[in-house]
Amino acid sequence: MNLDSRISSAKLRPVIGWRVLLSRASRIRLGLTDRAGADMKTTAVILTAVAAALTSATLASAQPAPPSALSEAIAIPGLSAPGEIVVDHWGIAHIYGATTRDAFFLQGWNAARDRLWQIDLWRKRGLGRLSASFGPAFVDKDRAARLLLYRGDMAAEWGRYPAEARGWTEAFVAGINAYVAQVKAGARPLPPEFALTASIPETWTADDVVRIRSNALVSNLTSEVTRAMAACRGAEKEDTLRHQILPAHKVVLPAGLDPCTVTPAVLKDYLLGTTPVVFDGAKLVAEASDVDSLLANHDRITREGSNNWVVAADHSTTGRPILANDPHREHSVPSLRYLVHINSPDLHMIGAGEPALPGVSFGHNDVSAWGLTIFYADQQDLYVYDLSKDHPGAYRYKGGWEPMTVVHEALPVKGEADRDIELRFTRHGPVIAEDDAAGHAFVVRSIWDLPGGAGYFNVTWMFRASSWSDFETAHAHWGGPPLNLVYADTHGDIGWLPSAYAPVRPNWDGLAPVPGDGRYEWKGMLDPGLLPSLKNPARGWIGTANEMNLGADYPASRKVGYEWVDRSRIDEIEHVLGAKSKLSLQDMMGLQTDVHSPLAARTIGLLDGLAGRDADETAALTYLRGWDAVESVGSGQTALYEIWAMRHLRPAMVAAVVPDKAKDLFADPQLAAVVDWLAKPDAALGPDPKTARDAILLSSLGEAWRDAQKRLGPDPAKWRWGDLHHAQWSPAAASLASPAMKAQFGVGPLEVGGSASTPMATTYRGDFNVASGASVRMVLDVGAWDNSRVINTPGQSGDPFSAHYRDLFPIWAAGGYAPLLYSREAVMANAEKVISLTPAP
């Protein structure tokens, strides 16, 4: 059967995971069977009802797998004893292994069952092996990725993790490899993306998992480069419009740095090595590799954030702690994260993680729950070297010339002979750019090069955690990405520990590039015990949302970082958590899907007392006056506000204060920073700052009113935020497919509320399509684990023909949840499919 025929038949398949909730007619109206003609306003009403049903649903009484559950028996080489994978109605896999080794083996096998294309691409991208599968267009991307691999001692690397971690990882990759072998033998289906790209999956080693660093979030290399360019162009002061500096701090360029030596070209290899794989057009070629397009993609990723909080037992209506977490990342199909439940006689945990990693990144075991958000410690520096004219390949260091380390590697390229690639390194890290004419080289120094710096892998310390002391152990070992870790356990303890490798910079702030001549050296990592912490606070709750949370009394000398997310989300979270003496699970779900924006309220407050100078300005002021800053899908005021704030107010402020030759660096200024400048107008706006400020506000608002009329029609009574703000995504491989195949791969559109400044974070691109936000939302009832709720989007499966490819998407869009089942009884009562696995003879 060809792919288009498979698509046609797949469209008729019932969405099994929804059969307990929706009739087939409802599924069609939800767009799960025929999305193209869906009426999104009608859909929103249906979704709200579905979300309410899901949130209030109670579990069936404990019983064996229902008679309706499907069953499958599979023999697998490498399994030591019979095991089981139970897939529930929401596509969540519950894995039961006879031993811990078998449980991780089955996790790897199951990850390949549901997400083989995704994890194979993750590995190929990270190791620099795309060209072997996709051809010469990916050579530059592969070379860049290889620059960013961990190249240190592997014994030291594994020594940073628990003693069992290597064995767990070996079992995990053995499970992946067992599935790959079955695919190659024709015993399991080959995902369609491999057919589209004429490629096959590869086999893994345990070292692959921890050597790959470039998929984890660290900062702030691109910001350093932009800041240097702003200084070169006379916009050093205005750079705080691009990004707030917190705590307040005057940026001083390092002595010996000529900022004009730093250009966007410096970033090309770094961006090639860190941005996702994109296939361009209907033929198999790489993404555009110009720096501007790479920067645009990278900036979308680095704007991401997350929410988490914990509530103590005596502030909870359950009488138990509650932990909530919704990490925000760039949305993708399939989701970046995968929900999984792992059970063996001596290890039991459930949660969400990246499908290419063993275990879970956040979730719970029998005793402890943990969650994460990015803690913006600065873990990168750009070093600028003088190159020797007399000693080719040498750079100045401490008054002498030091040779670069040169590594040659054979790069396999599909359809041609291996290519020899040259990689260069200095004592500080990989050389990402050289300017031979000017005599400069540029190196990224990062915690990625240190043992223990593998992204999220130190969460392995939490798998068996059963006390606050165990949580502190995980914190003490944490490398990257830098995280706010929150904790709750069945003993009643709650707490927060920001955890990261945080470089100690004794004589600079990390906000700009530095000369690589030996004057600017890290003095190790900050002692984890010197980072702030909080355990069982009297107020009964703790929350984080990527804000600057070091505290007013935290010593400035420690210089953890200066570039944080604005406080809008945490302000709303703290307001809601502090407003009630007792908080429920429903309150937590409501807060995760809260679309009130304190930043919007603050921005609109700038208009108080202003009078329009023409009909459009007057109409816009009248329309926004009294708005509650709740960014719901049906709100016309939200539509006007977002059009104004993001597309007109920010550019107007840049035009007013940034020197002409630097304006191109300020295409995406931080809205909170813009509002800060406008709230306290100064001489940068001219001799009469307040009058100039008011003119900026009014003229940009009038432009936004006219823009909204063009986009939404002449009648503002009919404007709706949901008519602009959609979630619609497709995977990279969809660009290679036929039109019918593209439709099968894609999800959406569905309208969603919120914005980047609401707890329900829905950061959008220039076309208002949602680019990043909560892939997973999780609310944990600590100790009564079956009461916990979760949602992933768009679904658990990466197979576009699976019922679980997009079944969670409309629930997510409507703010709904599914059960996160933990007990065997609850799992079996809600089983959709039971896969019995036995060792192959």
Structure description:
With 841 residues, the protein is of the alpha+beta class. Helices cover 32% and strands 20% of the residues. The chain has an eleven-stranded mixed sheet. Helix 6 (139-147) packs across helix 13 and helix 13 packs across helix 14. The chain is globular, with a radius of gyration of 26 Å. 55% of the residues are buried.
Give keywords:
disordered N terminus, 32% helix, single chain, eight-stranded antiparallel sheet
The amount of beta strand, in percent, is 15-25%
Mean pLDDT: 91
* Helix content range: 25-40%
Spatial order of the strands forming the largest sheet: 1-29-2-3-6-7-8-9-17-18-20
* SS-derived structural category: alpha+beta
Number of helices: 25
Shape: globular
Outline the secondary-structure elements.
Blueprint: H1 3-10, H2 24-29, H3 40-56, E1 70-76, E2 83-88, E3 93-96, H4 100-127, H5 130-134, H6 139-147, H7 154-159, H8 165-184, H9 192-197, H10 206-211, H11 221-232, H12 239-242, H13 268-274, H14 291-302, E4 306-311, E5 322-330, E6 338-344, E7 347-353, E8 362-365, E9 368-374, E10 380-386, E11 394-397, E12 400-403, E13 405-413, E14 416-426, E15 429-435, E16 440-446, H15 468-477, E17 483-489, E18 494-499, E19 514-515, E20 534-535, E21 541-544, H16 568-578, H17 585-592, H18 598-605, H19 615-624, H20 636-657, H21 671-679, H22 689-712, E22 726-729, H23 739-745, E23 747-751, E24 762-764, E25 770-774, E26 776-781, E27 789-792, H24 809-813, E28 818-819, H25 824-829, E29 831-839
Parallel strand pairs: 1-29, 3-6, 10-19
Antiparallel strand pairs: 2-3, 2-29, 4-5, 4-21, 5-25, 5-26, 6-7, 7-8, 8-9, 9-17, 10-16, 11-12, 13-14, 14-15, 15-16, 17-18, 18-20, 22-23, 24-25, 26-27, 27-28
